[in-house]
Amino acid sequence: MNKKRIYIADDHQIIIDGLKGLIIGLDEFSLCGEANDIEKAASDLASLKPDLAIIDIRMPNSTEGLKLLQWAVKNKISTRIVMLSMHQDLRLLQDAKNWGAKGYLLKNTGKEELFYALRHIAEGGTYFFEIPANDLQTEIVFTPKELEIIKLVIAGCSSSDISHKLGISDETVKVHRRNIRNKTGASNMAELLIRLNEIGYTF
Amino acid sequence: MNKKRIYIADDHQIIIDGLKGLIIGLDEFSLCGEANDIEKAASDLASLKPDLAIIDIRMPNSTEGLKLLQWAVKNKISTRIVMLSMHQDLRLLQDAKNWGAKGYLLKNTGKEELFYALRHIAEGGTYFFEIPANDLQTEIVFTPKELEIIKLVIAGCSSSDISHKLGISDETVKVHRRNIRNKTGASNMAELLIRLNEIGYTF
DNA sequence: CAAAATATACCCATTTTTGGGTATTTTCTA
DNA sequence: TAGAAAATACCCAAAAATGGGTATATTTTG
Description:
Oligomer: homodimer
Shape of chain A: elongated
CATH superfamily of the largest domain in chain A: Response regulator
CATH architecture of the largest domain in chain A: 3-Layer(aba) Sandwich
Largest sheet of chain A: 6 strands, parallel
Structural class of chain A: alpha/beta
Strand content of chain A: 5-15%
Low-confidence stretches of chain A: none
CATH class of the largest domain in chain A: Alpha Beta
Number of strands of chain A: 6
Number of domains of chain A: 2
Strand order of the largest sheet of chain A: 2-1-3-4-5-6
Order of helices and strands of chain A: EHEHEHEHEHEHHHH
Helix content of chain A: 40-55%
Largest interface: A-B, 40 and 40 residues
CATH topology of the largest domain in chain A: Rossmann fold
């Protein structure tokens, strides 16, 4: 039997080592590499062509793990990708699914569920964490401009900062921010940051 | 040889399982329990009296892992406690050290360093991650009232919200918030939330 | 193409925040 | 106990944020 080759990308080495420790005990898998950042992960995926990859959805340098997923899909990497997330968030999950991930697991998933998911995905299936109905946030969809502005908001920019950086009117920025606040249900900047964090934005 | 008994508390099950997978391979340690929240961890520490405990410095329900450390020290728990943190932060590290932790490890620590630390601590030593000199933030010390207000700030409260909740003048709250902003170098609420997050506050 | 969604930019008024200041009481600590 | 640190609360004024509105291009999509 040829073992399926697994690749792991996560900025926390302890998680990589932990996953390795767990997977080493399994007969059907072998480990073929690891990375702490998406640049190394991308080049490794291209050269090693693993069967599976477990990728943290959040990675350092503000470049999210989703970017790596998108890159892999665009470059027709055959590797079946499982996203690993801290957040029980429908938006992130659906983003992952829409971009072609084969799975979405939470970091507080136990090893049995992890093993089941890996086996299932290796055999051609998918495994997406089932978000409890009561936690079903109505999925928040931001427009491209809103996403641009969110990036600057979580960098600590004020409205006028943003208007200068984007070369648009201060008033327009205010409108976008109001819409973003309304979508997230936040009534001030502090709350907005909190909501964005819950939804999976890193700052 | 009697194995040292290790306890693990972390809100991410995958980290617990990962650590377990790593530690199981070691001769000198055995695992005696685990928890995803500080309540269970506290009662387990009291009843199981492990030799070592690896505790996530950040835990859910806004009750930090540091609280567990403080509780353990106050209750004269003999267990030698190692704090596990995502943040390379001097304040957190020193808080841990001051409260009697025997170690402070980052989640992106590799397994070799982890093993070395565990062995060293088990033998009566301490192991604190060496924060690079260039990353040495001047340690920020908040006063008790400031910490109270920070808690409410990262819950999304405005100044008047806080003044009502604490039963003090709106103006006093403003002063505290100004001092907090000055200490963190933030010039608005969004920046403050970002800085607090960097320093290790969860919201 | 037509409709819908998005981005643009302004209007208004109110509230909140920000950045200074002073000053008194309380609490901690050397 | 004397001095330092912290908490209290006010002053002022400028800047920013909030919450509501209207209106018009532009872009996307069925």
